């Protein structure tokens, strides 16, 4: 199960060079897992200071250093803030918003 994977994770790393709004970040935050992701504009605008960032041009050495830095840090405050942030984006809230949008479009 995916929830078991998140429960056993210490860090989620997303070194992608092309993403829009990856749900894996939100799922990680909801599970209390710190995130290290590439600082793409879409990710930064969505998650702001809730996650840790690396730049696209960063070397493997910098990525390794950031992983070690996060793993040694006390992440309790960041984890709690991430969980609170993720609660604002529950599936039921998202479904309700999407349903309202579609209803307005269909019955316009």
Q: What can be said about this structure in brief?
A:
By secondary structure, the protein is mainly α.
What does this structure look like?
- This protein is mainly alpha-helical and 108 residues long.
- Helix content is 57%, strand content 9%.
- It has a 3-stranded parallel beta sheet, with helices on both faces.
- α2 links the parallel β1 (12-14) and β2.
How many helix segments?
Answer: 6
Helix content: 55-70%
Structural class designation: mainly alpha
Which residue ranges are poorly predicted, with pLDDT under 50 across at least 5 consecutive positions? none
Report the strand count.
Answer: 3
CATH class: Alpha Beta
Major beta sheet, specifics? 3 strands, parallel
| Cα end-to-end separation | 41 Å
How would you name the CATH homologous superfamily?
Answer: Glycogen Phosphorylase B
List SSEs in N-to-C order.
HEHEHEHHH
Q: So, CATH architecture?
A: 3-Layer(aba) Sandwich
Taken from the alpha-carbon principal axes, the silhouette is globular
Strand content: 5-15%
Radius of gyration: 16 Å
Whole-number count of domains: 1
Q: What oligomeric state do the depicted chains represent?
A: single chain
How is the CATH topology named?
Rossmann fold
User: Which strand order spans the largest sheet, edge to edge or round the barrel?
Assistant: 1-2-3
Indicate the mean pLDDT: 81
List the helices and strands and how they pair.
Layout: H1 2-7, E1 12-14, H2 23-30, E2 35-38, H3 41-47, E3 52-54, H4 60-72, H5 76-87, H6 91-106
Parallel strand pairs: 1-2, 2-3
Helix pairs in contact: 2-5
């Amino acid at each position: 199960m995916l929830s078991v994977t998140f429960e056993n994770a210490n860090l989620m790393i997303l070194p992608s060079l092309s993403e829009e709004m990856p749900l894996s970040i939100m799922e990680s935050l909801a599970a209390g897992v710190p995130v290290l992701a590439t600082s793409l504009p879409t990710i930064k605008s969505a998650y702001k200071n809730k996650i840790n960032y690396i730049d696209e041009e960063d070397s493997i050495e910098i990525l390794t250093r950031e992983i070690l830095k996060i793993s040694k840090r006390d992440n309790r405050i960041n984890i709690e803030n991430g969980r609170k942030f993720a609660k604002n984006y529950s599936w039921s809230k998202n479904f309700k918003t999407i349903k309202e949008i579609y209803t307005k479009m269909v019955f316009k």
